[in-house]
Amino acid sequence: MKNKQLIDNFGRSHDYLRISLLERCNLRCTYCMPEEGIPLRDKQLFMSQEELFDIVDTFVSLGVNKIRLTGGEPLIKKNFAQILAHLATLNVNLAITTNGILLDKYWNELKDSGLDTLNISLDTLIEERFNAITRRSYFERVLNNIEEAIARGFDVKVNVVLIKGTNEDEILDFIEFTKNRNVSVRFIEFMPFDGNQWDWSKTVSFKYIIDTVSEKYGSALQKLEDGENATARNYKIKDFKGSFGIISSVTNPFCDSCNRLRLTADGKIKNCLFSSEEIDLLNAHRNGQNLEDLILKSVKSKHAERAGLKSFDADDFSSENRSMVSIGG
Ligand code: SAM
Ligand code: SF4
Q1: Is 191 in the pocket of ligand 1 (CB under 6 A)?
Q2: Pair 179, 216: CB distance under 8 Å
C-alpha cells in the first residue's frame, strides 16, 4: 500500500528492521551491559514466537525488506533455528549481529536460510584483553568461528568498538587482519548508553582512526564507495584482500540517510537507537489494536538527528534510554 510506506517527516523511507530477539547474553561486555547485569524479567513480558512473527508480518506489509537479528546474543535464543527458518520464507534480506561464540552450532541453518552477511563482534586480538572486556573467556572460539565463517564464504564483518585506553592501540593490527582475509573490519565509536560509563575522553574519533591508518599506509589507503544507507565509511589498503569501515555515530552521525527501525525483545518499537521514546506493539497486539497505525506513529515522530539530542553532554543526554544489551545494537 503506497500510502502506508514508512516515510518520516524528513522524507526518509524506513525499510530496515533490527530485531532484538532477547535481552540475555553469554558475554558481559563492559560497554554494553551494566556491571550488575540487567534484571531477568517475566517471560510473559516478551514476544512469543507467534507474536514475533505477527508483528514482523506487519512491518513487512509496510515495506520492510531487510531484517537484522540482534540482541542480547541472538544465538542463545532457544528457538533461533525456527525463527530463522520462518524469516527466510519472507521476501526480505536477512542479516545477523552476533558475538560469534555459538556460530559453529548453526552453520547449516544459516546457509539454508540464505543469510549471507554475518556481523561478528570482536574488540581485540589479544586474549587477556578479550577476557577483561567481555568478562568471559571465549576468545579462541570466536576467532575460530570468524575464520570458519570466512572459509565458508559468508560475507563477514568484524565489529570492533574502539575505546580509548582499552584497545585503540590495536587499530593497525586490525588493519593487518584484513591483509589476507576476505573480511571487513568495522571500527565503531563507543556510544553512551545507560550504565556504560561513557564519556567523551573514551571516544576514538573518525579522524584519529584515519590519521593512524594513513600515517602507516600513506597513499595505499583507498576510499571505497559507500552503499546508499551505509552507516560505515569504507576504505581499503591497496592489494589487501579485505577492507575496513568506520562507524562514527558520535563524532559524525549518519542520520540523514537513516532507514532503520528497531523492535525490542519485549515488543517495543524504537525509531532511533538513542531515543527513550518507545511504543508498545506487543501489548497493542495482545489487545487486538491496529499495529500499522502505531508503527506509522512511531515513524512520524522520528527526530531529524539522534532522537533530538543536542549533544551527549550530561545536560542534554537522557539516561532514561535502555542499556545497549536490551536495545539491540
Ligand atoms: N551480542 C551481539 C554482538 O555482540 O554482536 C549482538 C548485540 S550487540 C548489542 C550489537 C553490537 O553493538 C555489537 O557489535 C556491539 O559491539 C555493539 N555495541 C554494544 N554497546 C556499544 C556501545 N556502547 N557503543 C558502540 N557499540 C556498542
Ligand atoms: Fe553481549 Fe553483544 Fe552486549 Fe557483548 S555487545 S554484552 S556480546 S549483547
Answers
A1: yes
A2: no
31 C-beta closer than 6 A to ligand 1: yes
Cβ of 122 below 6 Å from ligand 2: no
Residue 33: all three cell numbers together: 551491559
Is residue 205 within 8 A of residue 251, CB to CB? The reply is yes
Nearest CA to ligand 1 atom 2: 98
- Which residues share a beta bridge with 270? 262
Which atom from ligand 1 is nearest to the alpha carbon of 193? 23
DSSP assignment of 238-300 equals: TT-SSEEEEE-TTTS--GGG--EEEE-TTSEEESSTT----EEHHHHHHTT--HHHHHHHHHH
Which residue among 22, 25, 77, 167 has the greatest number of ligand 2 atoms within 8 angstroms of its CB, and so is best to mutate? 25
For the Cβ of 142 lying below 6 angstroms from any atom of ligand 2, the answer is no
Q: For residue range 237-276, list pLDDT tens digits in order.
A: 999 999 999 998 788 777 888 999 999 999 999 999 888 8
Coil, helix or strand at residue 212: helix
Domains by residue range for the chain, with CATH: 2-327 (3.20.20.70)
d(CA 205, CA 178): 21
48-103 pLDDT tens trace: 999 999 999 999 999 999 999 999 999 999 999 999 999 999 989 999 999 999 99
φ/ψ bin of 298: left (φ > 0), alpha (ψ from -120 to 50), beta (otherwise): alpha
